[in-house]
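Hypothesis: this fold can be encoded by more than one sequence.
Test: take the C-alpha coordinates below, design a sequence, compare later.
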Protein backbone atom coordinates (compact mmCIF):
# COMPACT_ATOMS: atom_id res chain seq x y z
CA UNK A 1 0.00 0.00 0.00
CA UNK A 2 2.82 2.37 0.88
CA UNK A 3 4.47 1.67 -2.45
CA UNK A 4 1.27 2.37 -4.41
CA UNK A 5 0.82 5.68 -2.58
CA UNK A 6 4.46 6.69 -3.07
CA UNK A 7 4.22 5.86 -6.78
CA UNK A 8 1.05 7.90 -7.05
CA UNK A 9 2.90 10.85 -5.49
CA UNK A 10 5.72 10.45 -8.04
CA UNK A 11 3.26 10.19 -10.92
CA UNK A 12 1.35 13.25 -9.73
CA UNK A 13 4.60 15.16 -9.56
CA UNK A 14 5.58 14.09 -13.07
CA UNK A 15 2.10 15.19 -14.10
CA UNK A 16 2.69 18.64 -12.59
CA UNK A 17 -0.01 18.07 -9.97
CA UNK A 18 -0.93 20.18 -6.98
CA UNK A 19 1.95 20.20 -4.49
CA UNK A 20 -0.34 19.89 -1.45
CA UNK A 21 -1.87 16.77 -2.92
CA UNK A 22 1.52 15.30 -3.78
CA UNK A 23 2.70 15.85 -0.21
CA UNK A 24 -0.36 14.22 1.26
CA UNK A 25 0.29 11.01 -0.74
CA UNK A 26 3.95 11.02 0.17
CA UNK A 27 3.25 11.64 3.85
CA UNK A 28 0.65 8.86 3.89
CA UNK A 29 3.13 6.45 2.26
CA UNK A 30 5.78 7.20 4.88
CA UNK A 31 3.27 6.90 7.66
CA UNK A 32 2.12 3.47 6.44
CA UNK A 33 5.74 2.26 6.34
CA UNK A 34 6.03 3.07 10.03
CA UNK A 35 2.63 2.27 11.48
CA UNK A 36 2.08 -0.75 13.67
CA UNK A 37 -1.61 -0.82 12.74
CA UNK A 38 -2.55 -3.77 10.52
CA UNK A 39 -3.84 -1.62 7.68
CA UNK A 40 -5.61 -4.39 5.77
CA UNK A 41 -7.53 -5.28 8.89
CA UNK A 42 -8.24 -1.63 9.74
CA UNK A 43 -9.57 -1.02 6.23
CA UNK A 44 -13.00 -2.18 7.37
CA UNK A 45 -13.14 0.59 9.97
CA UNK A 46 -12.60 4.19 8.83
CA UNK A 47 -12.17 5.45 12.41
CA UNK A 48 -9.20 3.08 12.89
CA UNK A 49 -7.58 4.27 9.67
CA UNK A 50 -7.98 7.91 10.75
CA UNK A 51 -5.91 7.13 13.85
CA UNK A 52 -2.83 6.63 11.67
CA UNK A 53 -0.96 9.92 11.48
CA UNK A 54 -1.10 11.50 8.03
CA UNK A 55 -4.28 9.66 7.04
CA UNK A 56 -7.30 11.88 6.47
CA UNK A 57 -10.76 11.02 5.12
CA UNK A 58 -9.71 11.10 1.45
CA UNK A 59 -6.63 8.97 2.04
CA UNK A 60 -8.65 6.50 4.14
CA UNK A 61 -10.96 6.02 1.16
CA UNK A 62 -7.88 5.38 -1.02
CA UNK A 63 -6.64 2.73 1.41
CA UNK A 64 -10.03 1.07 1.37
CA UNK A 65 -9.96 1.03 -2.40
CA UNK A 66 -6.51 -0.61 -2.37
CA UNK A 67 -7.64 -3.14 0.25
CA UNK A 68 -10.71 -4.03 -1.81
CA UNK A 69 -9.32 -4.03 -5.35
CA UNK A 70 -5.54 -4.06 -5.05
CA UNK A 71 -5.26 -0.81 -6.96
CA UNK A 72 -5.88 2.92 -6.83
CA UNK A 73 -7.93 4.61 -9.61
CA UNK A 74 -5.78 7.78 -9.67
CA UNK A 75 -2.58 5.76 -10.03
CA UNK A 76 -4.13 3.60 -12.76
CA UNK A 77 -5.22 6.72 -14.63
CA UNK A 78 -1.75 8.26 -14.48
CA UNK A 79 -0.07 4.97 -15.42
CA UNK A 80 -2.38 4.72 -18.44
CA UNK A 81 -1.26 8.17 -19.50
CA UNK A 82 2.51 7.71 -18.99
CA UNK A 83 3.05 3.94 -19.02
CA UNK A 84 4.33 1.97 -16.05
CA UNK A 85 7.96 2.07 -17.27
CA UNK A 86 8.17 5.80 -16.56
CA UNK A 87 8.63 5.08 -12.85
CA UNK A 88 11.86 3.19 -13.63
CA UNK A 89 13.38 6.50 -14.71
CA UNK A 90 13.20 7.68 -11.10
CA UNK A 91 15.57 4.87 -10.10
CA UNK A 92 18.38 6.48 -12.09
CA UNK A 93 20.79 8.58 -10.02
CA UNK A 94 20.04 12.30 -9.94
CA UNK A 95 16.67 11.80 -11.62
CA UNK A 96 13.67 13.49 -10.00
CA UNK A 97 10.07 13.87 -11.15
CA UNK A 98 10.77 17.32 -12.64
CA UNK A 99 13.48 15.97 -14.93
CA UNK A 100 11.27 13.04 -15.89
CA UNK A 101 8.45 15.44 -16.76
CA UNK A 102 10.85 17.44 -18.90
CA UNK A 103 12.14 14.33 -20.69
CA UNK A 104 8.59 13.22 -21.35
CA UNK A 105 7.31 16.48 -22.77
CA UNK A 106 10.44 17.54 -24.64
CA UNK A 107 11.85 14.23 -25.85
CA UNK A 108 8.93 11.72 -25.59
CA UNK A 109 10.99 9.63 -23.14
CA UNK A 110 8.85 7.32 -20.97
CA UNK A 111 11.22 4.48 -20.04
CA UNK A 112 14.90 3.77 -19.35
CA UNK A 113 15.24 2.17 -22.79
CA UNK A 114 13.78 5.25 -24.50
CA UNK A 115 16.13 7.45 -22.51
CA UNK A 116 19.11 5.37 -23.66
CA UNK A 117 17.89 5.76 -27.23
CA UNK A 118 17.42 9.49 -26.87
CA UNK A 119 20.99 9.82 -25.56
CA UNK A 120 22.26 7.63 -28.42
CA UNK A 121 20.45 9.84 -30.99
CA UNK A 122 21.74 13.00 -29.31
CA UNK A 123 18.19 14.24 -28.74
CA UNK A 124 18.80 15.60 -25.23
CA UNK A 125 21.49 18.11 -26.08
CA UNK A 126 20.09 21.61 -25.85
CA UNK A 127 17.40 20.80 -23.27
CA UNK A 128 17.58 22.95 -20.14
CA UNK A 129 19.83 21.46 -17.40
CA UNK A 130 21.12 18.83 -19.86
CA UNK A 131 24.78 19.66 -20.32
CA UNK A 132 27.31 17.15 -21.61
CA UNK A 133 28.27 16.27 -18.03
CA UNK A 134 24.70 15.59 -16.96
CA UNK A 135 24.10 13.42 -20.04
CA UNK A 136 27.28 11.43 -19.37
CA UNK A 137 26.10 10.85 -15.81
CA UNK A 138 22.76 9.55 -17.10
CA UNK A 139 24.52 7.22 -19.52
CA UNK A 140 26.55 5.73 -16.65
CA UNK A 141 23.44 5.54 -14.47
CA UNK A 142 21.59 3.54 -17.13
CA UNK A 143 24.49 1.08 -17.32
CA UNK A 144 24.45 0.54 -13.55
CA UNK A 145 20.67 0.22 -13.56
CA UNK A 146 20.68 -2.42 -16.29
CA UNK A 147 23.38 -4.42 -14.56
CA UNK A 148 21.59 -4.55 -11.25
CA UNK A 149 17.87 -4.47 -12.03
CA UNK A 150 17.68 -8.22 -12.55
CA UNK A 151 18.35 -8.98 -8.88
CA UNK A 152 16.63 -8.35 -5.55
CA UNK A 153 17.74 -7.60 -2.03
CA UNK A 154 17.84 -10.52 0.35
CA UNK A 155 15.30 -8.96 2.75
CA UNK A 156 12.85 -8.33 -0.11
CA UNK A 157 13.26 -11.92 -1.30
CA UNK A 158 12.75 -13.23 2.21
CA UNK A 159 9.66 -11.12 2.75
CA UNK A 160 8.17 -12.43 -0.51
CA UNK A 161 9.07 -16.00 0.46
CA UNK A 162 7.26 -15.63 3.78
CA UNK A 163 4.16 -14.15 2.17
CA UNK A 164 3.93 -16.91 -0.45
CA UNK A 165 4.68 -19.65 2.12
CA UNK A 166 1.85 -18.47 4.38
CA UNK A 167 -0.53 -18.75 1.43
CA UNK A 168 0.73 -22.16 0.29
CA UNK A 169 0.63 -23.70 3.77
CA UNK A 170 -3.10 -23.00 3.93
CA UNK A 171 -3.68 -25.73 1.31
CA UNK A 172 -4.54 -29.15 2.74
CA UNK A 173 -1.78 -31.60 1.92
CA UNK A 174 0.96 -28.98 1.60
CA UNK A 175 3.07 -29.61 4.69
CA UNK A 176 6.28 -27.76 4.10
CA UNK A 177 7.49 -24.79 2.05
CA UNK A 178 11.27 -24.36 2.03
CA UNK A 179 13.09 -21.51 0.33
CA UNK A 180 16.01 -22.92 -1.66
CA UNK A 181 18.39 -21.45 -4.27
CA UNK A 182 20.46 -18.38 -3.56
CA UNK A 183 18.20 -17.27 -0.70
CA UNK A 184 18.98 -20.42 1.28
CA UNK A 185 22.67 -20.10 0.48
CA UNK A 186 22.53 -16.59 1.92
CA UNK A 187 23.79 -14.80 -1.16
CA UNK A 188 23.68 -11.02 -0.82
CA UNK A 189 21.04 -10.72 -3.56
CA UNK A 190 18.65 -13.16 -5.25
CA UNK A 191 18.05 -13.46 -8.99
CA UNK A 192 14.81 -15.31 -8.43
CA UNK A 193 13.06 -17.07 -5.62
CA UNK A 194 13.00 -20.89 -5.50
CA UNK A 195 10.42 -22.50 -3.25
CA UNK A 196 10.30 -26.21 -2.58
CA UNK A 197 6.84 -27.45 -1.66
CA UNK A 198 6.31 -30.92 -0.15
CA UNK A 199 3.49 -32.92 1.39
CA UNK A 200 0.82 -35.48 0.40
CA UNK A 201 -0.66 -33.00 -2.11
CA UNK A 202 2.62 -33.21 -4.05
CA UNK A 203 2.52 -36.94 -4.89
CA UNK A 204 3.31 -37.48 -8.59
CA UNK A 205 0.20 -37.70 -10.77
CA UNK A 206 -1.87 -36.09 -8.03
CA UNK A 207 -0.37 -32.62 -8.05
CA UNK A 208 -3.04 -31.04 -10.25
CA UNK A 209 -5.09 -29.40 -7.48
CA UNK A 210 -2.01 -28.11 -5.66
CA UNK A 211 -0.54 -26.69 -8.88
CA UNK A 212 -3.81 -24.85 -9.57
CA UNK A 213 -3.76 -23.52 -6.01
CA UNK A 214 -0.19 -22.22 -6.41
CA UNK A 215 -1.16 -20.55 -9.70
CA UNK A 216 -4.05 -18.79 -7.93
CA UNK A 217 -1.77 -16.93 -5.47
CA UNK A 218 -3.30 -13.42 -5.36
CA UNK A 219 0.08 -11.65 -5.62
CA UNK A 220 0.85 -13.09 -9.06
CA UNK A 221 1.51 -10.52 -11.78
CA UNK A 222 1.82 -13.03 -14.63
CA UNK A 223 2.40 -16.75 -14.99
CA UNK A 224 5.57 -17.73 -16.84
CA UNK A 225 5.12 -21.50 -16.90
CA UNK A 226 2.86 -24.10 -15.37
CA UNK A 227 3.68 -27.81 -15.51
CA UNK A 228 3.09 -31.16 -13.79
CA UNK A 229 4.90 -30.21 -10.61
CA UNK A 230 6.16 -26.70 -11.21
CA UNK A 231 4.78 -23.17 -11.43
CA UNK A 232 6.85 -20.11 -12.32
CA UNK A 233 5.45 -16.60 -12.05
CA UNK A 234 6.32 -12.95 -11.60
CA UNK A 235 5.26 -10.82 -8.65
CA UNK A 236 4.29 -7.20 -9.23
CA UNK A 237 7.80 -6.20 -8.11
CA UNK A 238 9.21 -8.06 -11.12
CA UNK A 239 10.61 -10.83 -8.92
CA UNK A 240 10.42 -14.29 -10.50
CA UNK A 241 9.29 -17.17 -8.31
CA UNK A 242 9.93 -20.83 -9.16
CA UNK A 243 7.73 -23.20 -7.15
CA UNK A 244 8.47 -26.95 -7.32
CA UNK A 245 6.20 -29.59 -5.82
CA UNK A 246 7.76 -32.89 -4.78
CA UNK A 247 6.73 -35.79 -2.54
CA UNK A 248 7.99 -35.73 1.05
CA UNK A 249 10.00 -38.90 0.41
CA UNK A 250 12.18 -36.82 -1.95
CA UNK A 251 12.48 -33.81 0.36
CA UNK A 252 16.23 -34.12 0.96
CA UNK A 253 17.15 -34.79 -2.66
CA UNK A 254 14.97 -31.96 -3.88
CA UNK A 255 16.24 -29.50 -1.29
CA UNK A 256 19.84 -30.40 -2.10
CA UNK A 257 19.21 -30.05 -5.83
CA UNK A 258 17.35 -26.72 -5.72
CA UNK A 259 19.66 -25.18 -3.15
CA UNK A 260 22.58 -25.48 -5.53
CA UNK A 261 24.74 -23.74 -6.36
CA UNK A 262 24.96 -25.08 -9.87
CA UNK A 263 28.75 -25.44 -9.55
CA UNK A 264 28.37 -27.31 -6.25
CA UNK A 265 25.78 -29.64 -7.79
CA UNK A 266 27.88 -30.39 -10.84
CA UNK A 267 30.86 -31.43 -8.70
CA UNK A 268 28.64 -33.42 -6.38
CA UNK A 269 27.04 -35.27 -9.29
CA UNK A 270 30.46 -36.21 -10.70
CA UNK A 271 31.39 -37.60 -7.30
CA UNK A 272 28.15 -39.61 -7.29
CA UNK A 273 28.84 -41.00 -10.78
CA UNK A 274 32.32 -42.15 -9.73
CA UNK A 275 30.67 -44.04 -6.88
CA UNK A 276 28.20 -45.68 -9.28
CA UNK A 277 25.27 -43.48 -8.28
CA UNK A 278 23.08 -40.93 -9.99
CA UNK A 279 21.87 -37.82 -8.20
CA UNK A 280 18.65 -36.04 -9.14
CA UNK A 281 15.96 -33.92 -7.47
CA UNK A 282 14.16 -37.20 -6.70
CA UNK A 283 16.89 -39.26 -5.08
CA UNK A 284 20.42 -40.58 -4.95
CA UNK A 285 20.09 -43.96 -6.70
CA UNK A 286 22.30 -46.76 -7.96
CA UNK A 287 23.21 -46.53 -11.65
CA UNK A 288 22.88 -50.28 -12.26
CA UNK A 289 19.50 -51.16 -10.77
CA UNK A 290 17.93 -47.74 -9.99
CA UNK A 291 17.47 -48.66 -6.34
CA UNK A 292 17.24 -45.63 -4.08
CA UNK A 293 20.20 -45.06 -1.74
CA UNK A 294 18.99 -41.84 -0.07
CA UNK A 295 16.26 -39.24 -0.67
CA UNK A 296 14.40 -38.07 2.43
CA UNK A 297 17.00 -35.82 4.05
CA UNK A 298 20.05 -33.89 2.92
CA UNK A 299 22.11 -35.55 5.67
CA UNK A 300 21.39 -39.00 4.21
CA UNK A 301 22.43 -37.87 0.75
CA UNK A 302 25.71 -36.30 1.83
CA UNK A 303 26.47 -39.21 4.16
CA UNK A 304 25.87 -41.73 1.37
CA UNK A 305 28.38 -39.78 -0.72
CA UNK A 306 30.95 -40.13 2.06
CA UNK A 307 30.65 -36.55 3.28
CA UNK A 308 29.42 -34.52 6.22
CA UNK A 309 26.28 -32.45 5.75
CA UNK A 310 27.26 -28.84 5.17
CA UNK A 311 25.54 -25.50 5.76
CA UNK A 312 24.03 -24.10 2.53
CA UNK A 313 26.18 -20.94 2.78
CA UNK A 314 29.26 -23.01 1.92
CA UNK A 315 27.86 -24.60 -1.24
CA UNK A 316 29.66 -22.59 -3.89
CA UNK A 317 32.25 -25.20 -4.95
CA UNK A 318 35.01 -23.29 -3.19
CA UNK A 319 36.56 -26.29 -1.43
CA UNK A 320 33.59 -27.31 0.72
CA UNK A 321 33.12 -30.64 -1.03
CA UNK A 322 36.73 -31.71 -0.35
CA UNK A 323 36.50 -30.44 3.24
CA UNK A 324 33.25 -32.33 3.83
CA UNK A 325 34.82 -35.52 2.44
CA UNK A 326 37.79 -35.09 4.80
CA UNK A 327 35.33 -34.42 7.66
CA UNK A 328 37.12 -31.11 8.12
CA UNK A 329 34.37 -28.53 7.65
CA UNK A 330 34.85 -25.38 9.72
CA UNK A 331 32.58 -24.56 12.64
CA UNK A 332 30.73 -21.48 11.32
CA UNK A 333 29.62 -18.51 13.37
CA UNK A 334 25.98 -18.48 14.48
CA UNK A 335 23.53 -16.02 16.02
CA UNK A 336 23.98 -17.76 19.38
CA UNK A 337 27.67 -16.73 19.33
CA UNK A 338 26.88 -13.00 19.06
CA UNK A 339 27.08 -11.18 22.39
CA UNK A 340 26.75 -7.58 21.30
CA UNK A 341 26.02 -5.10 18.53
CA UNK A 342 28.19 -1.99 18.50
CA UNK A 343 26.90 0.27 15.73
CA UNK A 344 23.48 1.89 16.14
CA UNK A 345 21.77 5.27 15.99
CA UNK A 346 19.22 7.00 18.21
CA UNK A 347 16.88 9.98 18.07
CA UNK A 348 19.88 12.20 18.84
CA UNK A 349 20.61 11.91 15.10
CA UNK A 350 18.68 9.92 12.49
CA UNK A 351 17.50 6.94 14.56
CA UNK A 352 13.90 6.30 15.59
CA UNK A 353 14.40 5.18 19.18
CA UNK A 354 15.98 6.42 22.39
CA UNK A 355 19.15 5.07 24.00
CA UNK A 356 17.04 3.27 26.60
CA UNK A 357 14.76 1.72 23.96
CA UNK A 358 17.77 0.43 22.02
CA UNK A 359 19.27 -1.01 25.21
CA UNK A 360 16.02 -2.72 26.17
CA UNK A 361 15.60 -4.17 22.68
CA UNK A 362 19.19 -5.48 22.71
CA UNK A 363 18.65 -6.98 26.15
CA UNK A 364 15.53 -8.73 24.86
CA UNK A 365 17.71 -10.30 22.14
CA UNK A 366 19.98 -11.67 24.85
CA UNK A 367 22.94 -9.40 24.14
CA UNK A 368 25.42 -8.50 26.87
CA UNK A 369 26.44 -5.15 25.41
CA UNK A 370 25.79 -2.54 22.75
CA UNK A 371 27.43 0.69 21.70
CA UNK A 372 25.48 3.81 20.79
CA UNK A 373 27.20 5.35 17.78
CA UNK A 374 25.30 8.33 16.40
CA UNK A 375 26.49 10.46 13.48
CA UNK A 376 28.85 13.43 13.66
CA UNK A 377 28.20 16.99 12.53
CA UNK A 378 29.50 16.64 8.96
CA UNK A 379 26.34 14.66 8.18
CA UNK A 380 24.14 17.70 8.70
CA UNK A 381 21.02 16.08 7.24
CA UNK A 382 21.06 13.53 10.07
CA UNK A 383 21.43 16.28 12.69
CA UNK A 384 24.93 14.92 13.37
CA UNK A 385 26.55 15.70 16.72
CA UNK A 386 29.12 18.44 17.20
CA UNK A 387 31.69 18.26 20.04
CA UNK A 388 29.37 19.78 22.63
CA UNK A 389 26.36 17.62 21.80
CA UNK A 390 28.56 14.53 21.53
CA UNK A 391 29.77 15.07 25.09
CA UNK A 392 26.21 15.58 26.36
CA UNK A 393 25.19 12.45 24.50
CA UNK A 394 27.85 10.26 26.12
CA UNK A 395 26.67 11.50 29.53
CA UNK A 396 23.17 10.30 28.67
CA UNK A 397 24.55 6.99 27.41
CA UNK A 398 26.43 6.49 30.69
CA UNK A 399 23.25 7.26 32.59
CA UNK A 400 21.38 4.53 30.72
CA UNK A 401 24.33 2.21 31.30
CA UNK A 402 24.01 2.81 35.07
CA UNK A 403 20.25 2.41 34.88
CA UNK A 404 20.66 -1.05 33.29
CA UNK A 405 22.56 -2.15 36.44
CA UNK A 406 24.76 -4.61 34.58
CA UNK A 407 21.92 -6.49 32.86
CA UNK A 408 23.45 -5.15 29.66
CA UNK A 409 26.45 -2.87 29.15
CA UNK A 410 25.84 0.27 27.08
CA UNK A 411 29.12 1.56 25.64
CA UNK A 412 29.59 5.14 24.55
CA UNK A 413 30.51 5.73 20.96
CA UNK A 414 30.23 7.67 17.74
CA UNK A 415 30.14 7.01 14.02
CA UNK A 416 32.46 9.82 13.09
CA UNK A 417 32.70 10.99 9.49
CA UNK A 418 35.95 10.63 7.61
CA UNK A 419 36.24 14.04 5.96
CA UNK A 420 37.38 14.46 2.36
CA UNK A 421 41.05 14.78 3.39
CA UNK A 422 40.98 11.87 5.84
CA UNK A 423 40.71 13.94 9.01
CA UNK A 424 38.00 12.87 11.47
CA UNK A 425 35.00 15.13 11.97
CA UNK A 426 35.39 15.58 15.78
CA UNK A 427 38.25 16.75 18.01
CA UNK A 428 40.57 14.07 19.33
CA UNK A 429 39.92 15.01 22.97
CA UNK A 430 36.22 14.23 22.43
CA UNK A 431 36.92 10.98 20.58
CA UNK A 432 39.26 10.02 23.42
CA UNK A 433 36.28 9.83 25.77
CA UNK A 434 34.34 7.30 23.68
CA UNK A 435 34.55 3.52 24.00
CA UNK A 436 33.69 2.70 20.39
CA UNK A 437 34.83 5.10 17.67
CA UNK A 438 33.68 3.97 14.24
CA UNK A 439 35.11 6.00 11.37
CA UNK A 440 33.06 5.96 8.15
CA UNK A 441 33.00 7.58 4.71
CA UNK A 442 29.59 9.15 3.98
CA UNK A 443 30.42 11.87 1.46
CA UNK A 444 32.54 12.55 -1.63
CA UNK A 445 32.35 8.96 -2.89
CA UNK A 446 33.53 10.00 -6.34
CA UNK A 447 37.16 10.68 -5.32
CA UNK A 448 39.80 8.97 -7.49
CA UNK A 449 41.22 5.71 -6.13
CA UNK A 450 44.53 7.09 -4.82
CA UNK A 451 42.81 9.99 -3.09
CA UNK A 452 40.19 7.76 -1.48
CA UNK A 453 42.81 5.24 -0.38
CA UNK A 454 44.98 7.98 1.16
CA UNK A 455 41.87 9.41 2.82
CA UNK A 456 40.88 6.14 4.49
CA UNK A 457 44.48 5.30 5.42
CA UNK A 458 44.82 8.68 7.13
CA UNK A 459 41.63 8.03 9.09
CA UNK A 460 43.10 4.70 10.28
CA UNK A 461 46.19 6.51 11.53
CA UNK A 462 44.10 8.60 13.92
CA UNK A 463 44.87 6.88 17.24
CA UNK A 464 41.21 7.00 18.31
CA UNK A 465 39.81 5.15 15.29
CA UNK A 466 38.86 1.70 16.58
CA UNK A 467 36.54 0.36 13.86
CA UNK A 468 36.34 1.14 10.14
CA UNK A 469 32.60 1.39 9.30
CA UNK A 470 31.02 -0.07 6.09
CA UNK A 471 34.46 -0.09 4.41
CA UNK A 472 33.45 0.11 0.72
CA UNK A 473 30.39 2.34 0.98
CA UNK A 474 28.38 0.25 -1.45
CA UNK A 475 24.57 0.21 -1.46
CA UNK A 476 23.42 -3.05 -3.01
CA UNK A 477 21.79 -2.61 -6.45
CA UNK A 478 22.06 1.16 -6.03
CA UNK A 479 25.62 2.34 -5.54
CA UNK A 480 28.85 0.60 -6.49
CA UNK A 481 31.67 0.45 -3.91
CA UNK A 482 33.83 3.55 -4.11
CA UNK A 483 37.23 3.26 -5.78
CA UNK A 484 39.64 2.06 -3.08
CA UNK A 485 42.76 -0.06 -2.68
CA UNK A 486 41.00 -2.29 -0.18
CA UNK A 487 44.00 -4.59 0.22
CA UNK A 488 46.19 -1.70 1.36
CA UNK A 489 43.49 -0.48 3.76
CA UNK A 490 42.93 -3.92 5.28
CA UNK A 491 46.66 -4.55 5.67
CA UNK A 492 47.15 -1.26 7.51
CA UNK A 493 44.05 -1.88 9.66
CA UNK A 494 45.49 -5.25 10.64
CA UNK A 495 48.85 -3.66 11.59
CA UNK A 496 47.21 -0.93 13.65
CA UNK A 497 44.65 -3.21 15.28
CA UNK A 498 41.73 -1.26 13.85
CA UNK A 499 38.79 -3.63 13.44
CA UNK A 500 36.91 -3.69 10.14
CA UNK A 501 33.15 -3.76 10.18
CA UNK A 502 30.80 -6.09 8.44
CA UNK A 503 27.71 -3.91 8.22
CA UNK A 504 24.75 -6.33 8.34
CA UNK A 505 22.11 -3.94 6.99
CA UNK A 506 20.72 -5.84 3.96
CA UNK A 507 21.17 -2.80 1.71
CA UNK A 508 24.89 -2.76 2.57
CA UNK A 509 26.34 -6.17 3.56
CA UNK A 510 29.70 -4.41 3.53
CA UNK A 511 32.36 -5.99 3.49
CA UNK A 512 31.05 -8.62 1.09
CA UNK A 513 31.79 -12.34 1.62
CA UNK A 514 34.83 -12.33 -0.64
CA UNK A 515 36.38 -9.29 1.05
CA UNK A 516 35.68 -10.80 4.46
CA UNK A 517 37.77 -13.79 3.43
CA UNK A 518 40.51 -11.38 2.40
CA UNK A 519 40.23 -9.51 5.72
CA UNK A 520 40.72 -12.71 7.66
CA UNK A 521 43.66 -13.77 5.52
CA UNK A 522 45.29 -10.41 6.19
CA UNK A 523 44.78 -10.83 9.92
CA UNK A 524 42.13 -8.16 10.45
CA UNK A 525 39.86 -8.16 13.45
CA UNK A 526 36.24 -8.20 12.30
CA UNK A 527 33.17 -6.75 13.99
CA UNK A 528 29.62 -7.41 12.77
CA UNK A 529 27.06 -4.63 13.36
CA UNK A 530 23.53 -3.89 12.26
CA UNK A 531 23.85 -0.09 12.03
CA UNK A 532 20.30 -0.13 13.47
CA UNK A 533 18.28 3.06 13.12
CA UNK A 534 15.30 1.43 14.87
CA UNK A 535 14.91 -1.29 17.52
CA UNK A 536 13.50 -3.57 14.83
CA UNK A 537 16.71 -3.31 12.81
CA UNK A 538 18.65 -5.21 15.47
CA UNK A 539 17.19 -8.39 13.94
CA UNK A 540 19.12 -7.72 10.72
CA UNK A 541 22.14 -9.35 12.36
CA UNK A 542 21.01 -12.57 10.61
CA UNK A 543 21.58 -11.16 7.13
CA UNK A 544 25.14 -10.25 7.99
CA UNK A 545 25.84 -13.55 9.72
CA UNK A 546 25.04 -15.35 6.50
CA UNK A 547 27.75 -13.34 4.75
CA UNK A 548 30.23 -14.21 7.52
CA UNK A 549 29.30 -17.86 7.15
CA UNK A 550 29.76 -17.62 3.39
CA UNK A 551 33.27 -16.36 4.16
CA UNK A 552 33.87 -19.49 6.31
CA UNK A 553 34.26 -17.39 9.48
CA UNK A 554 33.96 -18.98 12.90
CA UNK A 555 33.26 -17.39 16.27
CA UNK A 556 37.00 -16.93 16.90
CA UNK A 557 37.23 -14.61 13.87
CA UNK A 558 34.67 -12.09 15.11
CA UNK A 559 35.04 -9.62 17.99
CA UNK A 560 31.39 -9.50 19.00
CA UNK A 561 31.51 -13.09 20.13
CA UNK A 562 33.59 -11.89 23.10
CA UNK A 563 32.11 -10.83 26.42
CA UNK A 564 31.75 -7.12 27.18
CA UNK A 565 35.12 -6.54 28.89
CA UNK A 566 36.98 -8.83 26.51
CA UNK A 567 35.43 -7.02 23.56
CA UNK A 568 36.64 -3.61 24.76
CA UNK A 569 40.05 -5.04 25.54
CA UNK A 570 40.30 -6.52 22.03
CA UNK A 571 39.75 -3.14 20.38
CA UNK A 572 42.76 -1.07 19.40
CA UNK A 573 44.51 -0.04 22.60
CA UNK A 574 44.61 3.61 23.51
P1 LIG B 1 19.91 -16.78 -8.45
O1 LIG B 1 18.50 -17.18 -8.66
O2 LIG B 1 20.57 -16.22 -9.66
O3 LIG B 1 20.09 -15.88 -7.28
O4 LIG B 1 20.76 -18.11 -8.11
P2 LIG B 1 20.24 -19.58 -7.78
O5 LIG B 1 21.39 -20.34 -7.27
O6 LIG B 1 19.03 -19.52 -6.93
O7 LIG B 1 19.94 -20.19 -9.21
P3 LIG B 1 18.60 -20.70 -9.89
O8 LIG B 1 17.39 -20.03 -9.37
O9 LIG B 1 18.83 -20.62 -11.36
O10 LIG B 1 18.54 -22.24 -9.53
C1 LIG B 1 18.30 -22.67 -8.21
C2 LIG B 1 19.05 -23.95 -7.97
O11 LIG B 1 18.49 -25.02 -8.75
C3 LIG B 1 20.49 -23.88 -8.42
O12 LIG B 1 21.31 -23.28 -7.43
C4 LIG B 1 20.80 -25.31 -8.68
C5 LIG B 1 19.52 -25.85 -9.23
N1 LIG B 1 19.53 -25.82 -10.68
C6 LIG B 1 18.79 -25.03 -11.47
N2 LIG B 1 19.04 -25.28 -12.76
C7 LIG B 1 19.97 -26.23 -12.79
C8 LIG B 1 20.67 -26.92 -13.84
O13 LIG B 1 20.47 -26.67 -15.01
N3 LIG B 1 21.57 -27.84 -13.44
C9 LIG B 1 21.79 -28.12 -12.14
N4 LIG B 1 22.70 -29.02 -11.81
N5 LIG B 1 21.19 -27.50 -11.16
C10 LIG B 1 20.28 -26.58 -11.47
CA1 LIG C 1 17.07 -18.52 -7.50
CA1 LIG D 1 15.17 -20.24 -10.11
ZN1 LIG E 1 27.36 4.94 8.33
Amino acid sequence: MARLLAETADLLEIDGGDSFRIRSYRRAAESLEQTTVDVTEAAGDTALLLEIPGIGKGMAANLQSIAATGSLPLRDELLAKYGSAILDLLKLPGMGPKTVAQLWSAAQVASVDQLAEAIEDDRLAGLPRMGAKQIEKLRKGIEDYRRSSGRFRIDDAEEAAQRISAYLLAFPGIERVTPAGSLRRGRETAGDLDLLVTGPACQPEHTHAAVEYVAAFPGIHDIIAKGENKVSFHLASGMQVDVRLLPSASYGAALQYFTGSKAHNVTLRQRALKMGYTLSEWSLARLDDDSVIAAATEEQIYTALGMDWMPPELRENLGEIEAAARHALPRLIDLADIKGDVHMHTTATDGHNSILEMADAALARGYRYIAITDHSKNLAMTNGLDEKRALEHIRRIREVDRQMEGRIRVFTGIEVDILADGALDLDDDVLAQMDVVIASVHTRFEQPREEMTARVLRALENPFTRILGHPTGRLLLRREPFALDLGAVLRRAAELGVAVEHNAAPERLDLCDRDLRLARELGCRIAINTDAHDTRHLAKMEYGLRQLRRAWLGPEDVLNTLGAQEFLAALRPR
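The mean pLDDT is 95. Residues 181, 192, 194, 242 surround calcium ion (ligand 3) (CB under 6 Å).
Hypothesis status: open.
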